[in-house]
Design brief:
- The chain has about 230 residues and is mostly beta strands.
- It has a domain at about 10-85 and about 115-140 and about 180-229.
- Helix content is about 10%, strand content about 45%.
- The chain has helices spanning about 30-35, 125-140, and strands spanning about 10-15, 40, 45, 55, 60-70, 70, 80-85, 90-95, 100-105, 110-120, 145-155, 160-170, 175-185, 190-195, 205, 210-215, 215-225.
- It has a twelve-stranded antiparallel beta sheet. Strands 6-16-15 form a three-stranded antiparallel beta sheet, with no helix packed on it. A two-stranded antiparallel sheet has the order 2-3.
- The radius of gyration is 18 Å and the shape is elongated.
Length: about 230
Amino acid sequence: MGTASVVQPGHERRPASRTSVVGPRCPWQAVGDLLTDGRCEGGSVLGMALTTGTHTLGPDDASLQVKTYREGVAAKAGHDLIIDVTRWDATVEVADEPAGWTVELNADPRSLEIREGLHGVKPLTDKDRLEIRKNIDEKILGSSPIQFRASGVRLADDGGRLTVEGELSMAGSTRPLTAHLSLKDGTVVSGTIPVMQSAWGIKPYRGLMGALKVRDKIEVVIAANLASS
């Protein structure tokens, strides 16, 4: 997944969108802020217990990103990318025991938006962003839905880690995937999940006659507060 710009390599940062994940007393706190602090003026999520039942998540109350990395002798001609998935939904059924949990996630492969291009020698332009999206749509993911279905969930003895096992479908292939996630205060879930593109039959992007390549291993980064869902 992902590609690398060649015409205008570089670094550009766009302001991240800010989403409320705690409540009306924390109207501008983003999920990423919650992972590092967990507090806001006049309130706190610390000590909250995760209630059983159905929790629904999406871009309005959680974050789902893809990170890609360059390699090759011409790596400086491209960018490491941070890509937002802008249309997705997840349903988490929380039972009394993690073994009874169910997790389902669906994402639109055509909803990927380039948030940042890092470590290049020139800024990433809007033209570069459009070209990257075109390559992802036409050469990497296509139109096949992205889906994850969990087959088992385990909670570590310390209560701070979740292991979610299941199957990930993308680019027309379905393969097993295990996600190791952190669980903070019983409600805030986060994790970085490595994915080898070639395991799903995806050929990582190459440019400049192979001198610029996207690394086979990409990272899927998720952060969510189930207490807000």
